[in-house]
Design goal:
Chains: A alpha/beta, B mainly alpha, C mainly alpha
Distance between the termini of chain A: 53 Å
Number of helices of chain B: 7
Shape of chain A: globular
Order of helices and strands of chain B: HHHHHHH
Oligomer: heterotrimer
Structural class of chain B: mainly alpha
Strand order of the largest sheet of chain A: 4-5-6-7-8
Structural class of chain A: alpha/beta
């Protein structure tokens, strides 16, 4: 039991969980979020940051594959918690956090990971296996790399050098290069195909949007939904509309970077579902959100059809207060995303917050 | 003594990293090798007590190389080592030209009769520089400054008529810095929606 | 002088820890976690966690550039801190061009973030690295004008002279526009809070999305250090340095630094992130004219 063991146990008291929502298992996600909050564990944003993968529900086939890819991308020490129902969250979180503190378990995990390819020599890091390989076309987000095709690890090194006139030689690492396409100014520029979701913080459960990017401007977008597995059910219905609005708002506020207010929205959501929300605090939340000029400045140019993200947020706020907002007509997600930059993509998705509960694999 | 050592180390480093620009196989590495070379030159200026000029070289070169990085991403989306490429082209002629230029410059350095120092360096070179710029050299600086500004504006105007992000020109941009108007603005912006 | 060389990195580290701890407490308190204060040790646990953690090496990453970029952040923060006067004691290096030096060290941070974002070969990180340049170009001009205004007011580029020029009236009062712009660019220097889009949540962490283990530790430490140094520089630039009644100068410097640092960290939780396309237009069309005006007014007073 050396220094490493001591550090492991010290750190494992407060791991950084990456929460993966599964369509149809919203109740599990809410229970997990509440429990994480209670323990003071701050959620992670990416697989590289996380050491605890919390899968909330039973994913369908496609989603399960994406989650496995993200799991493969998580550096050790790591642990995985699969919670199938709200009452199981507590137990599901306890066992893996004990694993995180356990040095032999982690060493064994690091030694037996099959998806790892040993890195080229030159680099020796903390735990010996300091290597990750990108796999397959981007399922999770961690892999938002390039549009390389399916490949298990490092393909052989292509020779460097040679060639001429600033052109690229071969396909290093066996990866396909970024393709090229004309941009709106008529220049022929590189494009990347970058998947967003389904494992991504503050992102609708099971949604995957594959963007064709030039710089950070979207040239094309493909939207699909990866569904949940058996046992899922619809959670949001007429009985809990205000809480559903708060849930959407929390994601929107979080993507907009107003973390304090997003946390407040989640807290109020849970209190509302428990039936112990104080109207005065909700009132204060609504007032404060509506009053933010910075937020309006950031949202009002994000178009969603015949309205924009700021009006959408005002609608959500109205929904919390029990008012019925006017009917809006959003354009299809895939169309809205073309021509905007990545920051706007996230705001558009968060503002529209497409319903994915109970959906099987569909193309929206 | 240590100044001599530092000078020679910096000199070798700046030439070495300068040469590395043509040896490395990625645009990013070439850019930052060039930056390293400039930083060494900036450090040499610090060494001869031209503090202001030295730090200014460091500051401006970092910014310039980063602006180059923007162009790099504009033309080429593959980050990192994905796309090894050679940093030289037109090999034979380029070698000839650079050898010629080298001989010319080296010949100039060796043959010219360098003046002997008259007087001592000023106590505060920064102040001396400022006074020179604001005094005898003012006309030159004004002209150069105006020319650079005009070039910048002209190239921006020529390059784009709608901006990087395709912004709607008719749109009103609220200015978030004055907090006093919060209340006044609260209701007429989106009153209908609430 | 020689002691300060050792003291400065230590002070920067302590301030960076204070900033990270306060940030963790604020996050826990906003989330409604019971007993938010007990997460004050979060930075220590996070450091322990990252020390035993594997690095994440994405395929075809440029390891040399990644490590260079990451290392630049803490180094730049300490170099920037080296010219700040420590209240009663002298700065580690009382340079006659300290303000320009500070500016150069802070610009090096852009290079660090850009390198970290570019080198890991991930589109999220790439866009994050791209944003730091856009942000830099947006805030740097108003920021430089603010620094120049201080230089003109003090008739010197030395931090110590700026402090002694404020014996009558703090620059924060004499040149409020420059002060406000400086506070905004202090956030930008550490890509913090409203100016955190290079490491934004919408990019799953942007330039640091793929960093893990020691890489992430050094990056985060450098970021908090830069935030701390940006806050510390406010004191000699605008808040009269160690001037104040009763308490010794070093203590006043510390108190003021902690106050500014706390305000910056707090702002990180209270304001939405500014999108670069919006901020760019705002910085150039709204921020630059008043800073120039402020510079003109200060120059006329100085004459």
């Amino acid at each position: 039991m050396g220094l490493r063991g001591v550090l492991l146990r010290y750190a494992a008291r407060r791991p950084r969980p990456l929460v993966v929502p599964v369509p149809g298992f919203t109740a599990v996600r809410l229970a997990a979020e509440a429990e994480l909050r209670h323990r003071g564990w701050r959620p992670a944003l990416s697989p590289a940051e996380a050491d605890l993968l919390v899968v909330c529900g039973s994913p369908g086939h496609g989603l399960a594959r994406a989650i496995d890819t993200v799991w493969d991308e998580m550096p050790g020490p790591r642990a995985r918690a699969d919670a199938l129902d709200p009452s199981g969250v507590l137990a599901a979180l306890d066992a893996p956090s004990a694993d995180l503190a356990d040095e032999p378990t982690q060493l064994h995990d690091a030694a037996t990971r099959t998806s790892f390819t040993a890195e080229e020599p030159e680099d020796h890091a903390a735990m010996g296996h300091d290597s990750m390989s990108h796999e397959g076309m981007g399922h999770g987000m961690g892999h938002a790399g390039m549009d390389h095709g399916d490949m298990g690890g490092h393909g052989g090194h292509e020779g460097h050098g040679g060639g001429h006139e600033h052109h690229m030689m071969g396909a290093p690492h066996g990866l396909a290069m970024a393709g090229r396409a004309p941009d709106r100014d008529g220049l022929k520029l590189d494009v990347l195909h970058v998947p967003f979701g389904p494992v991504l913080a503050d992102w609708p459960a099971g949604l995957r949007v594959t963007l064709t990017l030039q710089g950070d401007v979207v040239q094309a977008a493909e939207v699909e939904t990866l569904g949940g597995g058996a046992g899922g059910e619809r959670f949001w219905d007429e009985s809990n509309v205000p809480a559903a609005r708060l849930d959407s708002l929390a994601r929107l506020l979080s993507v907009a970077g107003w973390t304090g207010q997003a946390a407040q929205a989640r807290l109020l959501r849970d209190e509302m579902l428990d039936g112990r929300a104080e109207p005065a605090r909700i009132e204060k939340f609504v007032r404060r959100t509506r009053r933010s000029r910075t937020l309006r400045w950031m949202l009002q140019d994000v178009r969603l059809g015949d309205f924009n993200a700021w009006t959408r947020m005002s609608d959500l706020l109205a929904g919390i207060s029990g008012e019925t907002p006017p009917a809006r007509h959003p354009a299809p997600l895939g169309e809205l995303l073309v021509g905007v930059d990545v920051a706007a993509v996230r705001l558009i998705v968060a503002a529209l917050d497409p319903e994915t509960e109970g959906a099987e694999v569909t193309h929206v | 003594m240590w100044r001599d050592a530092a000078f020679w180390i910096l000199a070798v480093l700046s030439v070495g990293t300068g040469a590395a620009v043509f040896v490395v196989d990625s645009m990013a590495r070439a850019t930052f090798a060039l930056l390293a070379s400039f930083l060494c030159v900036g450090a040499v200026l610090l060494l001869i007590d031209l503090h202001y000029l030295g730090v200014l070289v460091v500051l401006m070169m970092i910014m310039e190389m980063l602006v180059m990085a923007v162009f790099m991403i504009m033309y080429m989306m593959n980050p990192a080592g994905l796309m090894p490429m050679t940093m030289v082209h037109n090999h034979r002629n380029a070698l000839g030209i650079s050898a010629g230029v080298f001989v010319l410059l080296a010949g100039g350095i060796l043959t010219v009769r360098w003046p002997h120092r008259e007087g001592a360096p000023p106590a505060d070179p920064t102040r001396a520089l400022g006074e020179a710029l604001m005094g005898p050299k003012m006309l030159v600086m004004m002209v150069i400054g105006l020319a650079i500004l005009a070039t910048m504006i002209a190239s921006v105007v020529l390059a784009t008529h709608r901006g990087r992000y395709d912004q709607d020109e008719h749109e009103h941009e609220p200015q978030p810095q004055d907090a006093h108007e919060h209340h006044a603005h609260e209701h007429h912006g989106h009153g209908g929606a609430a | 002088m020689s002691e300060s060389v050792l003291v400065v990195p230590l002070l920067v580290a302590l301030l960076a820890f204070a900033a990270a701890a306060f940030d963790a407490v604020l996050a826990a308190s906003a989330a409604g976690s019971p007993g938010a204060w007990r997460v004050w040790d979060a930075p220590l646990r996070e450091a322990a966690r990252l020390l035993v953690r594997q690095r994440r090496n994405t395929l075809a990453a440029d390891r040399l550039l990644r490590r260079t970029g990451i290392a630049v952040l803490p180094v730049a923060a300490v170099l920037a801190a080296a010219v700040l006067p420590l209240g009663g004691a002298d700065a580690a290096s009382d340079s006659s061009i300290g303000i320009v030096w500070f500016n150069a060290a802070e610009v090096a941070v852009w290079a660090g973030v850009w390198l970290a974002g570019w080198s890991v070969n991930s589109a999220y990180s790439l866009v994050g690295g791209y944003r730091i340049i856009a942000q830099g170009l947006a805030y740097e001009l108003p920021h430089m004008f603010a620094l120049i205004t201080v230089g003109v007011g003090a008739e010197s580029l030395r931090f110590a002279d700026a402090v002694s020029a404020q014996h009558g009236l703090w620059f924060a009062v004499q040149m409020p526009v420059a002060f406000a712009v400086y506070l905004l660019s202090a956030l930008a220097m550490a890509f913090w809070g409203p100016l955190a889009s290079p490491v934004g949540r919408d990019l799953a962490g942007g330039a640091m999305a793929e960093l893990s283990g020691a890489d992430r530790l050094v990056f985060l430490a450098g970021r908090y250090a830069m935030l701390a140094v940006a806050a510390a520089a406010t004191v000699p630039l605008f808040l009269g340095g160690g001037a104040g009644p009763l308490l010794p100068a070093w203590l006043w410097t510390l108190v003021k630094t902690l106050a500014v640092l706390a305000a910056l960290v707090w702002a990180g939780h209270r304001v939405p992130v500014l999108r670069m396309d919006r901020f760019m237009g705002f910085a150039w069309t709204v921020l630059i004219p008043p800073t120039l005006l402020q510079l003109l007014v200060t120059s006329l007073i100085a004459l």
